[in-house]
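thread from #wetlab-drylab

HS: before we spend reagent money on co-crystallization trials with 6-O-phosphono-beta-D-glucopyranose, can we at least see a predicted complex? here's what I'd submit
DV: go for it
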Amino acid sequence: MNTESSASSVAQSTAQDRQAPPATLVIFGAAGDLTKRLVVPALYNLVRARRLADGFSIIGVDSASLTAESWRKQLSDMMEFFVRHGGDEFHASEIDPTDWNWLAQRMSYLQGDFTDSETYGRLAHLLAKRGGASDNVGNVLFYLAVAERFFGQIVEQLGRAGLTRESNGAWRRVIIEKPFGHDLSSARALNAQILNVLTEDQIYRIDHFLGKETVQNILVLRFANGIFEPQWNRNGISHVQITAAETVGVEARGRFYEKTGALRDMVPNHLFQLLAMIAMEPPVSFNPDAVRAKKTELFSAIRPISPDDAVRGQYSAGRVRDQPVRDYRREPDVEPDSQTETYVALKVGIDNWRWAGVPFYLRTGKYLSTRCTEIALHFRQAPYALFRDTPVERLPPNIMTLRIQPAEGLYVSFSAKRPGPEIEIDGVAMDFCYSDYFEPLSSVGYETLIYDCFIGDATLFQRADTVEAAWWAVQPVLDAWAAQPPRDFPNYAAGSPGPEAADRLLQRDGHAWRPIGAGLPRRNVE
Ligand code: BG6
């Protein structure tokens, strides 16, 4: 997202028409869900936005027994399915045949085992053949859309096969999906393993929350506007609430989720990215290292989270979006006495001059009452003297809510005088919705991220030290929870706002959670 390439935002396509340099994208996990649901639709959107060069090509690698033709067919069937039934992220009324063919004819498939060195020999051969083509300069982006256990092995195999070596100005880069490790020591070990083969600037650790326009906009909101920054500190803000409430359960991901849980799945990555964007100091520029250094600094200033400031929950049967749902413990591939948390709430303190004494409350959970991801900044109350003994004392403080999804926008609540001879004060709001100002972009959230890898802009990706600092902050909670199994699971009903203990976490400090979805326009409340 550096200014030079603020085209990192594909949204600015008309202003800065920048095509990515020719390159081959090698997707490990080509037959997997992520590739079908997000990577390929994102590539299609990049084709539509004219972001990919003629010399672009794709090699899909997977152990599934497919040919290039059957792989393409699977992918185009999936795109057609999205058109007919709508996808989670990809929406289109039709697939443009010219654009799809442009992409499809550049796809080849290599069937192979990720752990077998022979696969890499064959891949090297294919890439060498591609390198001979006049429109290809040998740039290769390896996308590891695979289970976490393969990350280190694939990078080592790529290194052994000489595929990560950069020469004659051609680059070799690797995208690594989340989860990056499952605790501090595994994240450190994985960093050490891949940094043995690659340099830091070849590694793009993805967090898809940073692909969201609303998340990228936080820095613009804070640093391109004069009105917010003077209030953006412990003098102006009493506390901050960050919520990522989901109305989905674990669906078919029981096996993965049992080992992961809500804390690992959402906190050191997605929620901390929101925390970093909202709380980091201004970087000196939008240069990737300037931005990432400020994020790491912020994570390093987080006081190690005390287990007393952490609440975990697991859902029992209930109703979500008017449908009955079962206990987490009865979901497929979930243990009948599972102790995995599907909800987490934390109180986070940041020990620096800007935020000392300002609690940041984070919560996320599956099967909650309303789908809503937002950051709510609660401002300090105005002094009461002027309004003593009036109902104003009961008025809520000013709250600025950044709606990340849905109904992307910004909502500010404040007080106003009700018209009339008496001073009567009422709560009112200003509401900015992106859709009122900008044309909606067809985006699955991966376009910007993939495009940024092609142009070499790492601003929106995690550096080794950032990932480790985030794990470091949550490690005390992981340790305490592992040592002490929960005694009250399940402790919240599906479709509710979460466990009661999460309310007590704020009550202790004289605060209360904003009702989930309070700032959403009615039509968006699911
Ligand atoms: C993923 C988690 O990384 O993020 C999921 O593994 C979660 O469990 C998802 O549902 C949330 O992302 P989004 O973009 O749907 O809010």
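DV: The CA atoms of residues 84 and 209 lie 27 Å apart.
HS: ok that's useful, forwarding to the group
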